[in-house]
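hey all, quick one before standup. I had two proteins in the batch that finished overnight and I want to keep them in one place so we stop losing track of which output belongs to which input. First protein below, input sequence then structure tokens straight from the run.
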Amino acid sequence: MKPTTTPGILFPWFLLCLTSLPLAAQKKNAFYQLPIRQATSTIRIDGVADERAWQEAAPATDFRMVLPMDTGAARVRTEVRMAYDDQNLYFLARCYHALPGPYMVESLRRDFSFSKNDNFLLFMDPFDDQTNGFSFGANAVGAQWDGLMYEGSKVDLSWDNKWTSVVKNYADQWILEAAIPFKTLRYKKGIVQWGINFSRLDLKTTEKSSWAPVPRQFPTASLAYSGTLVWDRPPPTAGPNVSVIPYALGGLTRSYANATPVASRWDGGVDAKVAITSSLNLDLTVNPDFSQVEVDRQVTNLDRFELFFPERRQYFLENGDLFSNFGYPTIRPFFSRRIGLGVPIRFGARLSGKLDKNWRIGVMNMQTGKESQPNPAGSALPAWQHPAQNFTVVALQRRVFARSNIGAIFIDKESLNHQPGADPKQPVYSRYNRNAGLEYNLASSNNLWTGKVLLLKSFSPGKAGRDVTHAANLQYASRQWNLIWQHQYVGRDYNAEVGYVPRRGYVRVNPQVGYLLFPKGGPVLSHGPLVNAAYFFDESFRRTDHETYLGYGFTFRSRSSLTAWTARDYVRLLQPFDPTNAAGDTLARGTEHRWNAWGTDFVSKPQSLFTYSFSTRHGGYYADGTRLNLTGELGYRFQPYVSLAVSSSYTHLRLPEPWGGQTFWLVGPRLDVTMTNALFFTAFAQYNEQQKNINLNTRLQWRYQPASDLFIVYTDNYFPAPFAVRNRALVLKLTYWWNI
């Protein structure tokens, strides 16, 4: 059978299955309605509900339990009221105590971990499309939470914008009061029904609840289960909405490894946000800098393929799902971290948002500068040039049925004034690389069925043939069953230079089955097995890899969890591979390796001041070797001001010669100090024995007014043995958010 024939048959069969599912239906909780009217008095954001406007606003009460079980009324009482005026949308949440004792929080840090804090969250769907929206909230000491919602239930917490809130604690409750400017939101003029839901987590009772009921297998952020916010008249227009965000930066750097003197840096740039309409935004940037972004956490890497590290730069994040979530985690035609990799970004523009209830659009263009990279001292080779490059991405999404959509994307990378191979002493960069793709995203009205069908094609000079990728998956998630089927095909000539596709030339088949049982009493809330099988084949349908995994998990009523698993692996190497990933000898291409392994994973209950987690793995490895991995994290918090954590990973490999025994430690202590909810200090160190590096990163952030910050960042890198400094850097950056 030809290798392209079977994937070609599977693809339309899967498309037929997805599109034939029942999709069009009324929103599940449409009858949960909260009226909102214009405030009848001025509202002060102080955590005191003494304004006449709050007394006259309709309350949302009678929350339903989601966890531990979704079959009854919430034990913990919550009451929410909403109002508005010409400038702001207001909400007030009364969060009553059900049990005595202090609140449970991590810190005052913004965008906290949901599961580790007593908190109240609002999920808002201004287009009532059950797919995209906004989330706002706070924990019990006032740390803010805000994010963009996408794919029906996911929240991107990297998004920041201007809004104000205050939390005040009382003997029997804590009150959150907030004002969100209409200029912060994106919504269509004239729409008088918005999707809305409220979520409450109370760790003392281990109860999660929501106003409009949500089945326990889904997050409370699931917009498929939102209620309706009914306006007494169309929301006011935001008016002219232009924000200018300049920055100024100064810094000192020194490379001790290259014996260079201290270098100073003085720089500046500007971002701008222009609301073309109330739901469509234009972002502009000139000479952006991202030095305040926290560095990536290091990992011990024993994988044969490139690892993924998420985008952290603010500019790329708003409506970023249109671009970055196209495809699958290992098949991303666009990955924004490829832009500005080791070279400066000169300027960029991005238009993104809603055209109407059914259409979303994203258009982005970024220009990087030409950069000279000197070779190491003493090298006879000349300095090499990285050409200036232009990146263009166009994405379009059309809603179909109840909550599904069809998306299209086009990506173009151009090297400007660059002739590959013209100078044999210079590295070769491709003249251009382009990708075009279509995908259909399935989401049934009740969220039980989800799935995707994907088709991609790349265009590169001198590359043609098997340059197509397609994939599909279908998932059924009920309270007890979780059934998944996925298959992928990536052609060996498929090329996504601005994407993340770590492996090419394969066919993957991946079924998964999970089942949960719910005891009526005792410490165990739920337990059940999970079976997962991943099979990889080359394009001639010869098996190259497979992993069969059997796990059994327990979730306890205390919210701790334990999983035990066993797995069987097979690998036929397609390329030479160093099993230590430490620049050593390699195993030969075509060699076959089989092993068994077992392991455990445990996470302690989040409501304790002292928390811990651990993972274990023991079993076989390449070349009939063995691998032992022990990973753990300890944390303690002096709430709400100080949080301490230490993570560590120990890996021991036992292999035949020439590798022998290899041990890799990875240790990372972290300190978080939150003096107020506007002043934060973070320090963490990372010792990576595999990479032979010690890293220290400290960051002080002062949010002196909403969305405006002062950052002081200091980083150090060291050689572990003999202990010596590699390089150091100190950066001071000031940003200011100015609404015109």
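OK second protein, same deal, sequence then tokens:
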Amino acid sequence: MNALSLLLSPRVLGLKNGFIGASSGTRKKAIIMVVVGLVFWGLMFVLSSRVLIYFQSVEVIGDILAHHLLSMILLTFFSLLIFSHIITALSNLYLSFDLELCHSSPAYLEEVFLSRAFYTIVDSSWMVVVFGLPVMMAYAYVYSPGPGYYLALLHIGPALIIIAAGIGILFTMIMVSIFPAQRTRDIIMLMMIFGIIVLYLMFRFLRPERLVDPDAFFSIMQYVSSMKAPDSPYLPTHWVTKVLWAHLSDSGGGGHFFEIMLIWSSALSIIIINIWVAGSIYFTGFSKSQEAKRRRKGRGILDLFTGILKRSFGYDLASIMDKDIRNFFRDNTQWSQLLLLGALVVVYLYNFSVLPLERSPVRLDFLQNELAFLNMALAGFVLASISVRFIFPSVSSEGGAFWIIRSSPLSLKRFMWGKFALYILPMLVLSETLVIITNLLLNVTPFMMILSSITMFMAVFGIVALGIGFGAMYPNFKYENISQVAMGFGGLMYMMISAIFMAVIIVLEAGPVYIIFMANLRGNDITVFQWLFIIPAFILVLFINILAVYKPMKMGLEALVKHE
């Protein structure tokens, strides 16, 4: 156990030293992060509370809807935890730089494995906890349970995380033991396919489109029964839901000792199984990961593309862009996530294709255009989520070789705008695809089609610039794995600022869009006073987009100049 504590101590000591010896700038970042995090938690808490209060106001099925929502949330978080642990375990267990030193130490193999598994759990679970805690507290606020609810959260929450971590780590070890390290691409591809299948099955298993269509059922009992479909007695989330709901309802939580035992026995069992499997196959998989990589084929297309870049941007900047593109395709943990991106886009578009708009009591043309307008905010959030994974780490991806950029004739300003130029085109294509296809599915008016397309076209420039700028303001050139860069303070700030950026645009456009749409719908003319409100609003939107491009790029450039 002494060796295990020593293996865990570097990160603990690093956090301790970071708090004790932190500079004023670091403390300021920590304070900002805490304040922004509390505001974000508050917004999620208020939104979740309003939804639950509305459910409570619905007679007969209100509590059933809240119970069903809790089950869906836990099942979604559990699936995300498994997928996140699969990705993180590959880096922490096989690809980290310090693993050679750890395996050459006198520590037992099981101790090395447990230390890396602990790192994997911490790295993969904190984001789910951040998003899940305000939702759980919203349930507590609305249903006013006793102290048993909070005690249950404290002990079965970590147990659920351990189960998801055990499944993800076990899957990773088995895949690495089957495939040689040179074929990491195949391993990651299998993981992506597995994740896509899980997401698709989970989506179809929940059948959310049926819940907004009670008329599709013959009776209220059949509708209620359909909402219980996601529950399965074999899922850990089912056990957790029963325990928590017992505390939230009037029945109390004393009668679910069996479910609690199931949760913790499963968590302890998966730990023992992982240790046993690691003793058999972990070191073999790690040895394979140290083998040399084979030469990849298909370089002709990249050579042709980089030749075009050199003619367009100059040899110096094109060399940086060439390096980024080649690194992207060489790093399987990055390019293989395009499969997941494709699955998310398909599910995103599918959501709009199954909306039963014709059964809504709201006028159809008004509802279609309202959804198309709100869809811009949702599309912006999707783009920001993609950007935080691919664009935000682009400056940090230079790693220890950043000093070469600093000492080269290439200016940092040209370096940053080169990063911007590399990502802007694919992001524009993705954003316009999402907006145009969803608008076609919703059958919106030409005005809404033009407005949403132009708005998203301009917003993408701001989202990409925010990603490059924040990535330059909060760089991490000493990362062990590029996926860890987006998990820090800068990544969290970028996501929140991007969400605020899109929210401001939507709020500013809401009034003018409503005036223009209703005037066209009723055949009325827009008055001079209304034009005096519409024109400044759209000018302000344009100004905010320009500011979102200029300001973060300037601040990022200043931060890189001062970086030592």
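Flagging for whoever picks this up: Residues 217-224 have pLDDT under 50 and may be disordered. The two ends are 39 Å apart (CA to CA).
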